[in-house]
Amino acid sequence: MRPIIVSEWTSLDGVFDAGSMEQWFNPYHSESRAAYLQQVIDNCSAMLYGRTTYEMLYPYWSQLRNNEMGVAEKMNSVQKFVVSATLQTAGWSNTTIIEGDLITRVAALKQQDGGPILVQGSGRLVHTLLEAGLVDELKLLVQPHIMGAGARLWEGAGTQGLELKAVTQLDKGVLALSYAPAGL
To answer: Which InterPro entries match (predicted)?
Structure first.
């Protein structure tokens, strides 16, 4: 069975809005954070995105050709799945569009042979996968910054008990937290 690993980057107060990353994410860049992010991406064998995140990432990453940031090659070559009821074509290489019954389709992906499936961003998709019991690990990269306003990762999510698996302090006060849904 392939585990689904969710990786999210947030401010201390849960903001994960890509439009404000220059305030809550960029100032906390460090070699240790870059190495952590590279490891998370390198350890997956497929990526699963919601349409909004896919459409945000695809134009940028698909144009890179020199393994920029140590992950461009992986981002472009890995098998990708995008959940969408409206997307007609997926231009990013190795991308399959998932339509219809999301839970059934993702549960079937988990049953296939292969390594971990990584979900990045895609807040609504993450909520749905957590509620369906399809997430095996939740990796939160928390920047020591309070935004006070902005799109919050857990806004609109149902309740979910979690068990702490690991805490790693990175440079500049960034925390890498690993959780499993309670009871796993």
So the answer is: DHFR-like_dom_sf, RibDG_C, Riboflavin_Biosynth_HTPR
| Distance from C-alpha of 89 to C-alpha of 74, rounded to nearest angstrom | 21
Nearest to 120, CA basis, from 4, 44, 8: 8
> Among 75, 3, 81, which Cα is nearest to 49's?
81
Residues facing residue 162 across a β-bridge: 181
Determine how many CB atoms are found less than 10 A away from the CB of residue 44. Answer: 23
Distance CA 138, CA 125 (A): 13
CATH of the domain at 21: 3.40.430.10
How many structural domains does the chain have? 1
Over the range 109-145, which residues count as b (16 or more CB within 10 Å of their CB) and which as e? Answer: beeeeeebbbbbbbbebbbbbbeeebbbbbbbbbbeb
Extended strands (E) in the chain? 4-11, 46-50, 79-83, 95-98, 117-120, 137-143, 162-169, 175-181
Q: What is residue 80's three-state secondary structure?
A: strand
Look up the domain containing 63 and give its range.
4-181
- Beta strands 117-120 and 4-11 are parallel
Q: What is the pLDDT of residue 67?
A: 82
pTM of the shown model: 0.94
